[in-house]
Amino acid sequence: MMQIDLTVPRGEFTLSAQFAASTPGITAVFGRSGSGKSTLVAALAGLLPNVQGHIRFAEQTWLDSSRKICVPAEERRIGCVFQQPRLFPHLNVQGNLDYAAHRARRHRQFISAAEVIHLLGLTDLLPRRVQSLSGGEQSRVALGRALLSQPQLLILDEPLAHLDGARREEILPYLEELRDRYALTMVYVSHRYEEVLRLAGHVVLLESGQLLASMTPAELSLDPRLRDISDGDYSGAVLEGTVIDVKPLAGLVTLSLGSQRLVIPAEGLPVGHHARVFIPARDVLLATHAPIGLSVRNQLLGTITSLSDDGIGGCHVQVHVEGLPILARITATAVNELSLAPGQPIYVLIKAEALRGYTYARA
Question: pTM of the entire structure?
């Protein structure tokens, strides 16, 4: 378990955060620019002065200001990857990796240099100078160097922020592989919620230095506080299910949701694999009667559990399907015309194509 209770003064800005997260696993720190994300992880890493409160990691106390305990950064065994890779320019790729491995030689080895090189696809890059690498290649080397420090905690502070979409897609599978193969604890900072959905099991939501929420991605996606800071783009529901059917020619897989089924566009997910899918509220339609003659692939029967005004002329309707919450955003006029109310049976209609890009493999 990682337990954090911090107050960090930074000039006119003060960060206050209290949360706990399971270890191992990925905890995402999410929020707008200036919300305090980098301040939080710098305090966690022991890189800031005047931090008040406590930090416990597993059985270790890294900070307890009331007892004047503050373990130095170098003794916390934390690997860090930042927005800028910060590689040593006078060394080639092999030299950067060797430097980290040499410094960590007295620590327990959970991953070898050969494993890191293979895992991150660095073999062909080893003799190259870091100045000749692309942004994505530099990020992979920085990640490899952090892993070879044999960290008990890996902090990734917006490591993909300076990369374009193609380069981000190049790096994310490596992070998924790390999550799924090794029992490693990671804190991942991002202002891109799609990265959070893809990687994290727990999310810490910050705004103006204050902790707004600490919960799972599924819980946060239904939380109005996320809508407030993301302009509603990530208002929706997160479901997880098991693949029970694959149609590779159509690029579709079917997930089991209790006795009902959800068809989603996805590739490389075999039968028996677990998947997480984000269903945007804006792409969910509701029907009071069983639809006939529609091309919509997903027609799920559920029960309305709540309705709430979104403040801009619409309404969020939460529906439970097999005990799983799904969120729909429809107009207030539609709510009145359909006479929607809690406890009412309702059909949830979701086009499979609307879920493209929102499906993520799980360990």
Answer: 0.90
Q: What does DSSP assign to residue 129? A: B
Q: What is the structure's pLDDT at 232?
A: 57
Q: Tens digits of per-residue pLDDT, 126-179?
A: 999 999 999 899 999 999 999 999 999 999 999 888 888 888 888 888 898 888
Rg (CA), the chain: 23
Overall average pLDDT of the 39-66 stretch: 95
Contact 348, 264 (CB under 8 A): no
pLDDT band at residue 228 under the 50/70/90 scheme: confident
Q: Give 3-state DSSP helix, strand, coil % of the chain, rounded to 5.
A: 30, 40, 35
Q: Tens digits of per-residue pLDDT, 295-311?
A: 898 999 999 999 998 87
Alpha-carbon dihedral 82, 19, 219, 153, rounded to 10 degrees: 40
Rounded Cα distance between 127 and 137, Å, is 13
* Beta-strand runs (E) in 191-343: 202-207, 210-215, 236-247, 252-257, 260-265, 274-280, 284-287, 298-309, 314-321, 324-331
In the block, tokens 């004047």 appear at: 68
DSSP alpha helix (H) spans, the chain: 37-44, 93-103, 113-119, 135-147, 165-181, 193-199, 217-221, 224-230, 332-338
CATH homologous superfamily of 2-224: P-loop containing nucleotide triphosphate hydrolases (3.40.50.300)
Provide the residue type at 71 as one letter. V
Q: What is the residue-averaged pLDDT of the chain?
A: 92
Cβ atoms of 245 and 263 closer than 8 Å? no
Tokens representing 357 are 């890009």
User: Hey, what CATH topology would domain 237-362 get?
Assistant: OB fold (Dihydrolipoamide Acetyltransferase, E2P) (2.40.50)
Burial of 52 (0-12, 13-18, 19+ CB in 10 A): middle
